[in-house]
Protein backbone atom coordinates (compact mmCIF):
# COMPACT_ATOMS: atom_id res chain seq x y z
CA UNK A 1 0.00 0.00 0.00
CA UNK A 2 1.34 3.37 -0.96
CA UNK A 3 1.39 6.36 1.35
CA UNK A 4 -1.41 7.96 -0.68
CA UNK A 5 -3.59 4.86 -0.40
CA UNK A 6 -3.00 4.76 3.35
CA UNK A 7 -4.01 8.39 3.69
CA UNK A 8 -7.09 7.95 1.53
CA UNK A 9 -8.36 5.14 3.76
CA UNK A 10 -8.61 7.63 6.63
CA UNK A 11 -11.06 9.87 4.71
CA UNK A 12 -14.64 8.55 4.77
CA UNK A 13 -16.27 8.51 1.35
CA UNK A 14 -13.01 8.73 -0.60
CA UNK A 15 -11.34 6.05 -2.69
CA UNK A 16 -8.73 6.00 -5.44
CA UNK A 17 -8.62 3.58 -8.31
CA UNK A 18 -7.18 3.24 -11.78
CA UNK A 19 -4.09 1.81 -13.39
CA UNK A 20 -1.81 4.12 -11.42
CA UNK A 21 -3.04 2.44 -8.19
CA UNK A 22 -4.23 -1.05 -9.16
CA UNK A 23 -1.67 -1.96 -11.80
CA UNK A 24 -1.91 -2.11 -15.55
CA UNK A 25 -4.49 -4.01 -17.53
CA UNK A 26 -8.19 -4.58 -17.18
CA UNK A 27 -7.57 -7.71 -15.11
CA UNK A 28 -6.16 -5.45 -12.39
CA UNK A 29 -8.16 -2.26 -12.81
CA UNK A 30 -11.72 -3.61 -13.04
CA UNK A 31 -11.69 -5.70 -9.84
CA UNK A 32 -9.95 -2.87 -8.00
CA UNK A 33 -12.55 -0.34 -9.17
CA UNK A 34 -15.40 -2.68 -8.20
CA UNK A 35 -13.92 -3.22 -4.75
CA UNK A 36 -13.50 0.53 -4.28
CA UNK A 37 -17.11 1.15 -5.34
CA UNK A 38 -18.42 -1.56 -3.02
CA UNK A 39 -16.40 -0.13 -0.16
CA UNK A 40 -17.84 3.34 -0.77
CA UNK A 41 -21.35 1.93 -1.04
CA UNK A 42 -20.97 0.03 2.26
CA UNK A 43 -19.78 3.20 3.97
CA UNK A 44 -22.68 5.18 2.52
CA UNK A 45 -25.31 2.70 3.66
CA UNK A 46 -23.82 2.30 7.14
CA UNK A 47 -23.60 5.99 8.00
CA UNK A 48 -25.92 6.79 10.92
CA UNK A 49 -28.72 9.15 9.96
CA UNK A 50 -28.37 8.47 6.23
CA UNK A 51 -31.05 6.72 4.22
CA UNK A 52 -28.55 5.03 1.90
CA UNK A 53 -29.71 6.86 -1.19
Walkthrough of the structure:
With about 55 residues, the protein is mainly alpha-helical. It has one domain. About 55% of the residues lie in helices and about 0% in strands. The chain contains three helices and no strands. The longest helix is centred in the C-terminal third of the chain and has 20 residues, at about 25-45. The radius of gyration is 12 Å and the shape is flat. The protein starts with a helix and ends in an 8-residue tail after the last helix. The mean pLDDT is about 85.
Summarize the structure.
With 53 residues, the chain is mainly alpha-helical. The protein has helices at 3-8, 19-22, 26-45.
C-alpha-based Rg, rounded: 12 Å
The structure class reads mainly alpha
Mean pLDDT: 84
Percent of residues in helices: 55-70%
Total number of strands:
0
Distance between the termini: 31 Å
Order of helices and strands: HHH
3D shape? flat
Q: What does the secondary structure layout of this molecule look like, with pairings?
A:
Blueprint: H1 3-8, H2 19-22, H3 26-45
Looking at this protein, list some descriptive labels.
single chain; 53 residues; mainly alpha; 3 helices; 0% strand
